[in-house]
Design goal:
The complex is a heterodimer of chains A (about 80) and B (about 350). Helix content of chain A is about 45%, strand content about 0%. Chain A has about 80 residues and is mostly helical. The relative contact order of chain A is 0.08. Chain B is built from 14 helices and no strands. The chains are: A mainly alpha (about 80), B mainly alpha (about 350).
């Protein structure tokens, strides 16, 4: 009998059992298409970032300037962390 | 010849230091410095950054070595996984891990014995997390509890210990960050679920499924946020800027729980990661603007929250912008040199 830690939950697994290929779900469009498009939102977000970075630089907070610059550079790309 | 070898190793350093992870760990370290009252102190920020980046190199490199087979399925050809994609050899990776560990320890020695203890504990965790016979990364909930200890505990403690101001509230902040980060880290396996399942890597998601994973994440996010907002020197602006982002995280978790498409999964997890970074940025800005005026602080925190929400909503709306992970010249240079070496 396997240890409880290894037993896992009962019932079907959403991604198949280990060693089996999972079924690929059909490609579906993204759900939130209403309103302005994603490009416009990202452009607005970058503008906000530029204003905030300028404000932080005026206040001499160069660490925060760096934080904002990095965020505006990476937040458009996928990351799971 | 030597210059070429050094250049090649330098390129690998850049490939392995993933931007989101670097931001995350350095922001936790900066938060430790800020809470200790040294937010703008470069004399501490530089060695603290060396400690953190060295530790990160070790952790990432060892994990890439251990997960080579899984990464070949989950992230085929990704330059951010130089070992799995054939850009680097195991010897290169081992060398980088050694260099990272030495750099981290050397900077820790400069900061003092408590930091050395933290780094040694972090390196031990990195080894046991990835490598056999321990391979704790393959142990479901244990992995989700241990990884945040390394990614939050090492940088935050390094930062706050450098200021010699680690108090009870500092430990409480660490607890809040740790619990909150568990809520983020349990979601990382959505991207890798196919390869994990195929190779029997039974992560928390594979063991317990989508709904339980999202529920645990929501619970940890809520608990972590409450702890932080109770413990930190509060302001209305901080409460609102942090709270609004946390509420949107819960909304995206609800959508992730209902999602039936891997592309949507990736978008929701990425949107939640953006808000997680936004929350830490708000905390950093809160400390940076102490003494600069309440109105200015309020406007800044509101702007930061708005920026993160816009990026997160755009991510949920259309997924990530596609790109080469690193500039082509960087990957090409390493790959060409690798093929030249192998053809000799």
């Amino acid at each position: 009998m396997p240890a409880e830690d290894d037993a896992g939950p009962t019932g079907p697994r959403p991604y198949g059992e280990p060693g089996q290929a999972a079924e690929a779900p059909p490609v579906a469009p993204f759900p939130y298409t209403a309103g302005t498009n994603a490009t416009a939102k990202r452009s607005t977000a970058r503008t906000v970032g530029i204003v905030l970075a300028t404000l932080a630089a005026v206040c001499g907070l160069f660490g925060i300037v760096l934080v904002i610059v990095v965020l505006t550079a990476i937040d458009s790309y996928g990351s799971n962390k | 010849m030597i210059a070429r070898a050094v250049l090649q190793q330098s390129r690998l350093f850049v490939l392995l230091l993933r931007p989101a992870l670097v931001f995350l760990l350095l922001s936790f370290a900066l938060l430790g410095l800020s809470i200790g009252g040294h937010a703008q102190d470069l004399r501490l920020a530089v060695p603290v950054s060396v400690v953190v980046l060295g530790f990160l190199l070790v952790a990432v490199t060892l994990n890439d070595i251990a997960d080579r087979a899984v990464d070949r399925i989950n992230l085929p050809g990704k330059a951010s996984r130089p070992l799995a994609s054939g850009i680097a050899s195991q010897q290169d990776m081992t060398l980088i891990a050694i260099v990272g560990g030495i750099a981290s320890l050397a900077a820790a020695v400069w900061l003092g014995p408590p930091t050395v203890a933290v780094v040694l504990a972090g390196l031990l965790l990195a080894v046991t997390y990835s490598l056999e016979p321990f391979a704790l990364s393959r142990r479901g909930a244990v992995a989700s509890l241990l990884l945040p200890a390394g990614f939050v505990g090492v940088p935050f403690l390094t930062g706050i210990l450098a200021t010699h101001h680690l108090t009870g509230s500092g430990w409480a902040v660490l607890g809040g960050l740790y619990v909150g980060f568990i809520g983020r880290i349990v979601l990382k396996d959505f991207r890798d679920v196919v390869g994990d399942t195929l190779l029997g890597k039974r992560t928390f998601l594979v063991r317990h499924g989508r709904l339980v994973t999202c529920a645990v994440s929501a619970g940890c996010w809520t608990a972590g946020s409450v702890i932080l907002l109770v413990v930190l020197q509060r302001s209305v602006a901080l409460d609102v800027a942090y709270g609004v982002q946390a509420v949107f995280v819960l909304f995206f978790l609800r959508q992730l729980g209902r999602s039936q498409n891997p592309r949507h999964d990736e978008a929701f997890v990425s949107a939640i990661a953006i808000l997680g970074r936004g929350c830490v940025a708000v905390l950093l800005a809160h400390y940076a603007f102490v003494g600069k005026g309440a109105v200015l602080s309020m406007l800044f925190l509101a702007g930061l929250a708005a920026m993160s929400l816009l990026f997160a909503w755009a991510m949920a709306q259309s997924g990530p912008v596609s790109r080469t992970y690193v500039p082509a010249w960087l990957v090409g240079g390493v790959a060409v040199e690798r093929s030249e070496v192998s053809s000799r």
